[in-house]
Design a protein that fits this description.
The protein has helices at about 5-20, 25-45, 90-95, 100-120, 140-155, 170-184; strands at about 60, 70-75, 80, 85-90, 130-135, 160, 165. With about 180 residues, the protein is of the alpha/beta class. Strand 5, helix 5 and strand 6 form a beta-alpha-beta unit. The longest helix is centred in the N-terminal third of the chain and has 18 residues, at about 25-45.
Amino acid sequence: MKKSARALRMQRHHKRMAKESKLSLVSLMDIFTILVFFLMVNASDVQVLQNNKSVELPKSTSQKAAKETLILMVNNQELILQGRKLVDVANILNQDQDIISELVTELEYQVNRSTKSTSEISNTEEPVARAITIMGDKSIPYTVLKRIMQTCAEVGFTNISLAVEGEMPNEQQTATDTAQQESV
C-alpha cells in the first residue's frame, strides 16, 4: 500500500526529531550546583539545640543566637549533662548542701577532657570563664536552678546561659498578625 504525501512528510519529520532530541545534562548540572552552594551557605546560619520532649522551655524573646557549649538539661525527674544522667531532682531537693557533688565531678571531667583534646596550656593565673547552657523545664523549682548555677560557678563555668524557646517581639508579632488578617 502506497503512503500519501502527508504520511511520508510526517514520517520524515518524526525521524528527524528523534535524531535531534538529545538529553542535555549541562543545564541540570548548573541548577544542582547552584542549589548545593545555596544550601552550604545557608546551613551555617542555623543553630539548633538538642531538644528533649521531657523539657518544656519557657518562652521569651532572645536577642542573641545560641552558642555551642555544654548542654545541661533539667526536667522534673533528672539532671542530664551532655546526654548523661547525673542525679535525680528529688535528691537535689533533699540534700542540705548547695553544691551538687555529681555535677561537680562531671563538669571537672568535661574540663579535663576539653583541655587534653585542645592541648591549651595557659600561662596566666586568671581562671578561664567557661560557658554552659542550662535547658531547664519551666516547672522546675527555683532552688534546683539556684543550686545548679551555684555548682557551675564553683567549678569555673561562670558564663551561664539559660535556653528559652524564642518568640518574636510584640512589635513584629503585631505586624505579622496584621499582615495575616489583611491577607484573609
